[in-house]
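**Sequence, structure tokens**
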Amino acid sequence: MTVAARNNVHEHGHADAQPMLFAHGFGCDQSMWSHVWPAFADRYRVVLFDHVGAGGSDPDAFDRDRYASLRGYADDVLEICDELHLTDVVFVGHSVSAMIGVLAATAEPERFSRLVLVGPSPRYVDDEGYVGGFTSEDIDELLESLDSNYLGWSSAMAPVIMGNADRPQLAEELETSFCRTDPEIASHFARTTFLSDNRDDLERVTTPSLVLQCAQDAIAPEPVGRYVHERLRESTFVQMRATGHCPNVSAPEETIAAIRRFLSR
């Protein structure tokens, strides 16, 4: 099986243009970029994919050892780039994929021209001198709930993650995406995600980066975004008006505008 088939790769825009690679967050798939990527198809070679276990990816490609670390997912990103001969890549990563992009860019810095990190968090658990947004007990409860009743967890967490109570249809869209993910793989990916610590990797990034921080983000609160910005060597921080953790869905126009400003510099 090709890497493109493994990760359900789809391309849009101009084949000979600069590539723009979109990576989705935990429990989602490439459809979460459907309100964003068309705005860039006139100037870029847009590449969308699903992480293994999500969307239309090949579930048989899942390997517990490979994906016990975010580096396994970063390796997938690099393999996609290699198979499609992508260079000078603009990488756009949401949530956990922000750190996956960081890892890919530190492994092959020459491959990437810009990183766009939407709601990034290098560590979700609070630590001495560091605010991640969750205690260890919070994460244990979250993972236990996910293990015991994935559909119930999806229903309960989608509104919290989306963070737009006045627009319940957005939470329903996210919940639907959760339900398209294999529960066993989702449980494994959740542990890899929420127990990760990539703080030390930030200072190794040499690629110019944009940090997009939402207001009232229950998953990656503002102190986390500012921490990422302060430790990236060359980064731009944008505090968005959008609320919640998924501005690519809840505020695509603002998200598009911020990315465009960054890429035009």
In short: The first strand starts at residue 10 and ends at 13. Residues 102 and 205 are 7 Å apart (CA to CA). The chain has one domain: 3-122+198-263. Residues 70-83 form the longest helix (14 residues).
